[in-house]
Design goal:
It is a single chain. The protein is mainly α. It contains 16 helices and 2 strands. The chain has a two-stranded parallel sheet. The radius of gyration is 20 Å and the shape is globular.
């Protein structure tokens, strides 16, 4: 089997295939959002009602909330929905819930796509991947994410953003977005104190803290220990997993497919996978298997 790269695959697609793969629709995204968001609301209500064993429900609630990251990711690509305004609104709500301002993240993520797994230019590699058990456990805890994003949002709000991937014309937007986020967080905190309410604590803060390790576990598989090459079929990993994980992650386990052709909406990635499956160079069968291999090789050269 001849090795080809992602550019050759895209070039080989017929006009009909390109049109079919990249057609944006509202219905698939709205249905997925209704299911994902509906489960979040349902679990939050059950926790507020303090049904029997309600603390146990905070874990699935937290997982569902932190995996809004994958929805945010789709909306900044403007492929979650056909309607641009719907993409923007959902991006802001999702980003607010997980402390990830969408305008800033859009600049960050598009630089990641432009320089995928390039050690010198990919902003995702600004924070080194774990190389020891201690670093691995710290990464999975979610602490580097929360502390890092708190610093980013604060710096942006103070007008001190110095990220090379944020263009000069975008700094005012990044500043305004961060200030709005911080103002709303402060307002919600003050309201909870005045009302002596713990609702936000049990339906948002604690759930996202205990859910974050599951998102970190998922994200670590996307590029870790893939080759530092320009071919998206090699530098990005597709992980074969269950329908439940694909649902919660908005089909992003098809990650090499996404990086190869970012214009493909989440609901068409399974079809695109069938087209390029035989050419994928970095794959894994399940996240448990990936992490077993990763832990066994920590400290060893890539």
């Amino acid at each position: 089997m001849a090795e080809i790269d992602h550019r050759q695959i895209i070039a080989s697609l017929s006009t009909e295939d390109r049109r079919d793969l990249t057609e944006k629709q509202d219905a698939p995204g709205v249905l997925r959002l209704a299911a994902h968001g509906g489960l979040i609301v349902l679990l939050a209500i059950l926790i507020l009602l303090k049904v029997p064993f309600w603390p146990v429900l905070m874990l699935p609630l937290g997982i569902l909330i932190v995996f809004l990251f994958t929805l945010l990711h789709e909306t900044i690509h403007e492929t979650a929905f056909r309607t641009e305004k719907l993409n923007r609104i959902v991006a802001v709500v999702s980003g607010f819930l997980i402390l990830l301002p969408p305008a800033w993240f859009r600049y960050f993520h598009f630089a990641h796509h432009r320089y995928t797994h390039d050690p010198d230019n990919d902003p995702e590699l600004m924070s080194p991947k774990p190389e020891t058990i201690a670093q691995y456990l710290r990464y999975l805890s979610g602490w580097p994410y929360w502390s890092g994003m708190a610093k980013v949002v604060t710096a942006n709000a103070l007008g001190r953003n110095s990220d090379s991937f944020v263009p000069e014309k975008g700094r005012a937007k990044v500043l305004s977005e961060a200030r709005w986020f911080l103002a709303l967080y402060a307002l919600m905190f003050a309201g909870s104190v005045l009302l002596q309410s713990t609702a936000l604590l049990w339906t948002w803060i604690v759930p996202v803290l205990i859910g974050q390790p599951f998102l970190r576990t998922y994200l670590l598989a996307e590029h870790t220990r893939c080759p530092h090459v320009s071919n998206m079929l090699e530098n990005t990993r597709t992980t074969f997993t269950t329908a439940i994980v694909r649902f919660v992650a908005w089909n992003m386990p098809y990650h090499a497919e996404h990086h190869s052709y970012p214009a493909v909406p989440f609901h068409r990635l399974p079809r695109f996978h069938r087209i390029i499956a035989e050419h994928l160079r970095s794959t894994e069968r399940g996240y448990v298997r990936f992490h077993r291999k990763l832990v066994a090789n920590l400290g060893k050269p890539e």
